[in-house]
């Protein structure tokens, strides 16, 4: 399955020259093209100018925290696979990274087995995406290409916020959806009141069934299995 990465382009955000030189040679085994950036500004520029299919980023840059960049990316793209690197396990960073839908969290120094496993997880996302239809529950599917929900031949057209919601949902099918995630993905980093969240969830349940989203007390919501 990992062979599907052979025609994909990787954006590698890292500010250590020696690590870049060694890692890029390894990454070429997996990807068609590797674009390197040493700063968040350079990474943003490459995202705009090049076709980027996957992001691999160190968290600790010289004067920046790459999680700021990843949060911004997730605000615009809920589906792109993202793998992060760190020189050590940091529980605070791990907690902040959980809602970002990461494919893997790797600790330096890299070993081939862990890297391969991370890229295998990314490859599975591409295979699923190639099929366009993501299975939800009770017969519903989400078409990632057409941005519609379908069930038994019925097509449910979506407004912008609903599209952003389903993009978030398919990226986080097995995760609890917190208010902060709704603000980041659905409300595009704008402040959202508790009543706005409740009303939005009510509209989703009205369209797709009362049991489509389960309430997780004091935390958020989760798609019923």
Could you provide a short overview of the structure?
The protein is an alpha/beta fold and 225 residues long.
What this model shows, in words?
This protein is of the alpha/beta class and 225 residues long. The protein has two domains: 129 residues, 3-Layer(aba) Sandwich (Rossmann fold); 91 residues, Orthogonal Bundle (Arc Repressor Mutant, subunit A), CATH 1.10.10. The chain is built from eight helices and twelve strands. The strands form three sheets. Strands 2-1-3-4-5 form a five-stranded parallel sheet, with helices on both faces. Strand 7 and strand 8 form a beta hairpin. Helix 6 packs across helix 7. It is globular, with a radius of gyration of 18 Å. It starts with 8 loop residues before the first strand and ends with a strand. The mean pLDDT is 88.
In CATH, the architecture of the largest domain is 3-Layer(aba) Sandwich
Q: How many separate domains make up the residues?
A: 2
The Rg value, from CA coordinates, equals 18 Å
Assembly type of the chains comes to: single chain
Q: CATH superfamily of the largest domain, please? A: Response regulator
The main pleated sheet reads as: 5 strands, parallel
Q: Give the low-confidence spans.
A: none
N→C terminal distance: 26 Å
Mean pLDDT: 88
Largest sheet, spatial ordering of strands = 2-1-3-4-5
* Alpha-beta classification: alpha/beta
Mass-distribution shape: globular
Residue share in helix? 40-55%
Please give the CATH class of the largest domain: Alpha Beta
E-strand count: 12
**Range of strand content:** 15-25%
CATH topology of the largest domain: Rossmann fold
Number of helices: 8
SSE order in H/E notation?
EHEHEHEHEHEEEEHEHHEE
């Amino acid at each position: 399955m990992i062979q599907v990465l052979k025609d994909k382009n990787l954006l590698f955000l890292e500010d250590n020259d020696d690590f870049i030189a060694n890692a890029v040679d390894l990454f070429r085994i997996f990807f068609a093209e590797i674009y390197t950036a040493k700063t968040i500004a350079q990474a943003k520029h490459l995202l705009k100018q090049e076709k980027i299919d996957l992001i691999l980023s160190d968290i600790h840059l010289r004067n920046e925290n790459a999680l700021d960049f990843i949060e911004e990316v997730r605000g615009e793209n809920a589906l792109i696979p993202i793998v992060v690197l760190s020189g050590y396990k940091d529980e605070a960073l791990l907690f902040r990274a959980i809602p970002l839908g990461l494919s893997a969290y790797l600790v330096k120094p890299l070993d081939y087995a862990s890297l391969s496993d991370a890229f295998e997880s990314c490859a599975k996302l591409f295979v699923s995406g190639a099929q366009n239809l993501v299975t939800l529950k009770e017969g519903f599917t989400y078409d990632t290409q057409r941005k519609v929900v379908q069930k038994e031949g019925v097509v449910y057209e979506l407004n912008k916020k609903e599209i952003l919601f389903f993009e978030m949902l398919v990226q986080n099918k097995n995760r609890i959806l917190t208010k902060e995630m709704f603000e980041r993905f659905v409300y595009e980093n704008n402040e959202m009141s508790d009543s706005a969240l409740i009303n939005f969830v009510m509209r989703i349940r009205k369209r797709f069934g009362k049991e489509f989203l389960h309430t997780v007390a004091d935390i958020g919501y989760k798609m019923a299995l």
